[in-house]
Backbone:
């Protein structure tokens, strides 16, 4: 694994096998995008992201950084996924979330923890629970089922 110096003294990581091709392509820059930083370069007035360049991929699917680090463009850290699959890796939670877990919230009216998950534009209710841990486990199980291509319930 090799380090590639970007603007603002940021570093991107690339596999040894890709380093030569990446360096000879030209200068690479840091781009902050939705709380993540990605490496890119300009070519014919278009941005080319380093993760797409490494995989030589220009399709419509997303490229997922498995470890969640947008600057880790090592080949073994990248995979082509659908937007839905990529969103499952999004661990950002809302600022008003008191549970600390996506899809788990406390219902003040019923005094229960509730769990839900969104998939393909549809919200799935996973149940209400007396214990936070049970609601959290329901959410985790639904995420695992979706990753396996199954229904979340």
Residues:
């Amino acid at each position: 694994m090799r380090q590639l110096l970007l603007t603002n003294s940021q570093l991107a990581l690339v596999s040894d096998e890709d380093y030569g091709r990446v360096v000879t392509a030209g200068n690479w820059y840091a781009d902050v995008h939705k709380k993540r930083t990605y490496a890119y370069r300009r070519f014919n007035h278009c941005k080319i992201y380093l993760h797409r360049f490494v995989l030589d991929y220009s399709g419509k699917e997303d490229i997922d950084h498995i470890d969640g680090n947008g600057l880790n463009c090592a080949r073994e850290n990248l995979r082509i996924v659908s937007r839905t699959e990529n969103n499952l890796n999004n661990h950002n939670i809302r600022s008003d979330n008191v549970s600390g877990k996506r899809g788990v919230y406390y219902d003040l009216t019923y005094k229960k923890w509730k769990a839900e998950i969104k998939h393909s534009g549809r919200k799935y209710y996973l149940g209400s629970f007396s214990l936070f841990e049970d609601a959290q486990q329901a959410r985790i199980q639904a995420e695992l089922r979706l990753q396996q291509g199954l229904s979340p319930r």
The mean pLDDT is 90. The two ends are 41 Å apart (CA to CA).
